[in-house]
Amino acid sequence: MKLICSKANLLKGVNIVSKAVPSKTTMSILECILIDASASEIKFTANDMELGIETIVEGEILEKGIVAIDAKVFSEIVRKLPDNDVTIDTDSNYQISITCEKANFHISGKSGEDFSYLPYIEKTDFISLSQFTLKEVIRQTIFSIADNDNNKLMTGELFEIHNNEFKVVSLDGHRISIRKIELKDSYPDRKVIVPGKSLQEVSKILSGETDEEVRIFFTGNHIVFEFDNTMVVSRLIEGEYFKINQMLSSDYETKFVINKKELLSCIDRATLLVKEGDKKPIIFRITDEDMEISINSQLGSMKEEIDIQKEGKDILIGFNPKFLIDALRVIDDENITIYMVNPKAPCYIRDDEQKYIYLILPVNFNASAN
Amino acid sequence: MKLICSKANLLKGVNIVSKAVPSKTTMSILECILIDASASEIKFTANDMELGIETIVEGEILEKGIVAIDAKVFSEIVRKLPDNDVTIDTDSNYQISITCEKANFHISGKSGEDFSYLPYIEKTDFISLSQFTLKEVIRQTIFSIADNDNNKLMTGELFEIHNNEFKVVSLDGHRISIRKIELKDSYPDRKVIVPGKSLQEVSKILSGETDEEVRIFFTGNHIVFEFDNTMVVSRLIEGEYFKINQMLSSDYETKFVINKKELLSCIDRATLLVKEGDKKPIIFRITDEDMEISINSQLGSMKEEIDIQKEGKDILIGFNPKFLIDALRVIDDENITIYMVNPKAPCYIRDDEQKYIYLILPVNFNASAN
């Protein structure tokens, strides 16, 4: 095999497929990028068996062939080459020579025989949206997937399509995040659970441009994201997702509007008194005039008042500050509306059209101590 | 005690003195910043017994007093306060209230009785130079102090003053770094060993402006850096520094001029094949035409040629690439001159006026394998 590619194109390709190279594995072939120049295009592939990524790299094929090359070493070499054309040349023993200007590297490759190729996907059933929208919707929900494997379903996100509505849901037992997107076209109903890790990697590769499209294909066991010259294939999580609608309620006893940035800065300040692992709740004392936010810890105490526009009952309620911070960070609205029922029932942050809903469970605390 | 300071001034003061707060200590008073408003100025002090820093913070004293406050908690609170005036108020039990806009923090302070005040320094014997020069000269030598305590002298830098020459030296047994600065005035001879850690912290606080001055005072056991509103006091390392002049030689068999950036990029590329802890030398094969740089490791091999202007003998010599990289990074010249004697003798990188000298010992390698 013999190829010539610019350093920039090589680097782009390597950066994209590297997202599917596992950091730890016992199968050394999975640590490789497959360079496939056996047909008319140069294709890089990596596959950790759950997530597979394939991308077309622009360049010239002087001699057709295939080779598998250690992803880490290859990526570091490419990164440090001068900005110029790079020649990649392999011999019949898969010894690879990489030359750029006066620099020449020699490393050993593999035949690629053992490489796990991506599954063949019949591309019929799909939806289309902008890269920007997909990237945003992942960012706005991914934080509330579970961070451990105790319940496999919680490590993924629900992707639900109904007519022209695309709904993304994640939950971890303490909170639920829901975002709804309006698609340009209507599609048949679909409901799949996508591994959170796959979404995190997809999100890193997406350009995030509003005028660049991404097409999402569905098969029985896989989801495929196709954009630019790249295809990302992820296994789906099997099982029936939680019945979200049963958990949501639109009843409330207290409703208030608050400036999002002020609330976020205040909670941020309060949490500096909470050391990691120390589960101190942040207390909201909501009255007609304002909201008093307070926290008590071994390090000291903090109190702050914020103006709110309130309807309904006064309430004293405690939260894990991290859950509030996570949700507030991904809401773009300047002012937000928060709904509460009582100190033991979930609180909701949602907009009028319910394009976003963040449900957060309160925590118990010793009210007399506050 | 009651003070009003802007958040910006508080933060500046806290950031400066925090450099002298030890990250680990059994004496909790050392983890504190002393706020001394007992006289007409607000003074922050921190002291880890080896390094002490004192800085004047602009603000208004409404009620005189002294309090010691946990540096980490105080610094985090100040950092997250809104950009406005901050009131710090203590009661007779050293309970501290910090108020800014509607936010109010309560934390416990200490009396400051146990605080180790900085030693009294008679400020007579001093030199003066620009903050820029001091910061640069530290950066250009600090990398070759020893990273362990086996030989205390090697953990410090020699500061030597002779007439109007200020010489800074560091060495770690494999290499020596020497920088010489011309001072505006002449001073009496001085020779002290300053702990490297103190210099690293001083360097972080120095603004690095060419038109800002720093005055360096010497006493029997201490060195004092005075600049802006800040005073840094460091203990000196006791003992007689190595006799550097006996280690230096101006004889050479091979001399060549090379583009610094090209050499640095090439060594940088070569070292990516060397995993941490793997001591593979980089080999220079120097001939009349050019220099061939090569490296061999388990991961593969790399070769590259660089143009040089050479005088004297051909030579084949090996180095620890890290030592070359460290020295090359801090040299500002576009082209540098390297002097060699034989594959077992030290190599020198130095300019004609010997404003800088970097001595690096070569390493043995199996020449037949290259």
Automatic annotation (TrEMBL), chains A, B:
Keyword vocabulary terms for this entry: Cytoplasm, DNA replication, DNA-binding, DNA-directed DNA polymerase, Nucleotidyltransferase, Transferase
Localization annotation: Cytoplasm
Span of domain DNA polymerase III beta sliding clamp N-terminal: 1-118
Entry superkingdom: Bacteria
Role this protein plays: Confers DNA tethering and processivity to DNA polymerases and other proteins. Acts as a clamp, forming a ring around DNA (a reaction catalyzed by the clamp-loading complex) which diffuses in an ATP-independent manner freely and bidirectionally along dsDNA. Initially characterized for its ability to contact the catalytic subunit of DNA polymerase III (Pol III), a complex, multichain enzyme responsible for most of the replicative synthesis in bacteria; Pol III exhibits 3'-5' exonuclease proofreading activity.
Taxonomic lineage: Bacteria, Bacillati, Bacillota, Clostridia, Lachnospirales
InterPro entries per UniProt: DNA_clamp_sf, DNA_polIII_beta, DNA_polIII_beta_C, DNA_polIII_beta_cen, DNA_polIII_beta_N
Protein name: Beta sliding clamp
Short name of one Pfam family: DNA_pol3_beta_2
DNA polymerase III beta sliding clamp central domain: residues covered: 129-241
NCBIfam families in UniProt: dnan (TIGR00663)
SMART domains with a match to the protein in the record: POL3Bc (SM00480)
